[in-house]
Structure to design on (150 residues):
């Protein structure tokens, strides 16, 4: 049972969409097929600087990672932001997330990026146990602000 990582392909749409809907459900987001479809379009066509990865085991898509490039003015460097990472429940514990994260690091290195960054829920202990093995948690706190006209 070897995990293989590759870029998304058009033929992955159905399996990717199932996994992405699972990701959204995990984070208690509304069931929104349009959001899944829009994200697929962005990821599969590299819009907005997205890089879409899938993990397969025996030819079946069992994980996904959606990354996008960003500029870091404070260091005058580029980075990759990991927006989404998800492993199918039946494939958890098989090294899927670690393989996806290693590929993200390799892409960053190949592009000259200086960091791969992401956020996760503070109570996502299972994911954090993986992340703590490959990355360093930071002290930064994340805020969200709603857009508002002047």
């Amino acid at each position: 049972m070897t995990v293989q990582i590759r870029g998304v392909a058009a033929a992955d749409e159905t399996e990717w969409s199932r996994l992405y809907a699972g990701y959204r459900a995990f984070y208690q987001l509304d069931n929104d097929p349009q959001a899944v479809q829009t994200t697929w379009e962005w990821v599969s066509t590299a819009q907005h600087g997205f890089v879409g990865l899938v993990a397969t085991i025996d030819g079946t898509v069992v994980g996904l990672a959606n990354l996008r490039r960003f500029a870091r003015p404070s260091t005058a460097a580029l980075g990759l932001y990991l927006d989404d990472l998800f492993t199918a429940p039946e494939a958890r514990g098989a090294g899927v997330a670690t393989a996806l994260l290693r590929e993200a690091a390799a892409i960053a290195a190949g592009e000259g990026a200086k960091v791969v960054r992401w956020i996760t829920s503070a109570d996502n202990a299972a994911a954090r146990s993986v992340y703590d093995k490959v990355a360093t948690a930071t002290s930064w706190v994340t805020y969200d602000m709603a857009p508002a006209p002047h």
Remarks:
- The chain has a mean pLDDT of 96.
- The first strand starts at residue 3 and ends at 7.
- Helices lie at 13-26, 33-44, 96-111, 125-134.
- The longest helix spans residues 96-111.
